[in-house]
From TrEMBL:
Protein name listed in UniProt: Fatty acid hydroxylase domain-containing protein
Start and end residues of each Fatty acid hydroxylase domain: 113-247
Organism superkingdom: Eukaryota
Subcellular location: Membrane
Keywords of this entry: Membrane, Transmembrane, Transmembrane helix
Signal peptide per UniProt: none
Amino acid sequence: MAPIIESCWLYLVTHFSDFQLACLGSFFLHEGVFFLSGLPFIFLERAGWLSKYKIQSKNNSPAAQEKCITRLLLYHFGVNLPVMLLSYPVFRYMGMRSSLPLPSWQVVLIQIIFYFILEDFVFYWGHRILHTKWLYKHVHSVHHEYATPFGLTSEYAHPAEILFLGFATIIGPAITGPHLMTLWLWMVLRVLETVDAHCGYHFPWSLSNFLPLYGGSDFHDYHHRLLYTKSGNYSSTFVYMDWLFGTDKGYRKLKALKSIGNEDDCKQM
């Protein structure tokens, strides 16, 4: 497997410059992974398939879905792409490289774990700040236009929020100066995680059923359903920050009540 990856990477670095790979390559990889993983949830909602796994019974209208896609394309090309282009000198200065040899899987694994932990910590506090009255009203309320989220709403946000919370995603790589392959892997995993958190469905195969610290869609959907002053569940990937600071109490209480209700239903049967 490793020789195949190295051969593919050799082709890339031979035919494209570092700038093209780091900026344009990263942008189009992000767009491909984001839309390919997010669009299916629009079709699921419209067709009504797998509705028994849908967290909320309410559906978004086609007009609301199309508005989300239109705004996303505007934000991605008008905000994300320019930021990637401008960030290239910074990442080069911090040590990012694209040349062979590729990093070992041990190095990649350690860096990815570090990025997830650091991102979750920074995102939690940034997200809580965005839920203060003024910032919520003028910035974060854009993201909360969709009380019933679907995959693509994960990146539907005010441009200021894209920059503000985007810092949580790039701070880890900026510190470590990773190989571009590691940066791409981190970006793909982060996109898949945030699409999953906003997908609106909780499946039997959802990661949160197998990883105790992973938040997932059920955890974050609660955040979108409630008023900003009472929502909680501010973390991006894991649940321990909300548990440590008591901002998941409402969610835990609701889960406990549902559990008791299910037990009562079983007894009646």
